[in-house]
Amino acid sequence: MRDKIMFIKDKISDPTIRSLYERKSVRVFTGAHIPEDDVRIIAEAAAQAPTAGNQQLYTILRITDPEKKHRLSISCDNQPFIEEADLVLVFCADCLRWYRAYEEAGIEPRKPGEGDLMLAVSDALIAAQNAVVAAQALGIGSCYIGDIMENAEVQREILGLPAYVFPAAMLVFGYPTEQQKERPKPKRLDLDYVFQENVYHEPTGEEFRKMFGDRLGQKTYDDWMRAFYDRKYNSDFAREMTRSVRKFLEDFQ
Which of 6, 72, 210, 239 is the most buried (most CB within 10 A)? Predict the structure, then answer.
């Protein structure tokens, strides 16, 4: 399947589809300024994304204050390139706007619940991906920062987030350096493992070992998986993210 996908990529002439194959995270920028017209295009592209019931259950925060960018670079797992990015956008799942709009009409709305939050997160992330695709078309690199979901109390203070507003994702943008342009894109899993038909198939042990086989290098499957587990799933930042998201969820229970 992987060979087939690479063959398809080589045959694609449409620039939008090719950009989806070629886009990769960029964490080192040239420092060149992104023109305001291009920032507007990125923002407008985000707003054109599919949205539940045309509600646009998100608010996009553009972070221009240098002090806030610095604090976010620290609160988001100490990543200096956040502060160095020319454009920083936080995509917030916003369940407050419609709640207040209903109140304005004299309605006594029910409190937003977990389902409302999940729908708003979906809206926010779809809009964020539209921004990524638009930026790529303009030659502007981007990187998702999931760490914005950590440190709930700090993020709320930095961004002035009220109840029912959740920072679903942060994106940083800038022009990639030549090294970043040439850096190989990490391989994705073979499509057979993520594209299934009708019902969910839980992989067997043998399938798991085949699934990650080309990532192991000189390590055994067990050793590679243990290292990845410790670095990601069982890390301090992963545990903090769970605690922090649980804190945000208190508003919706």
Answer: 72
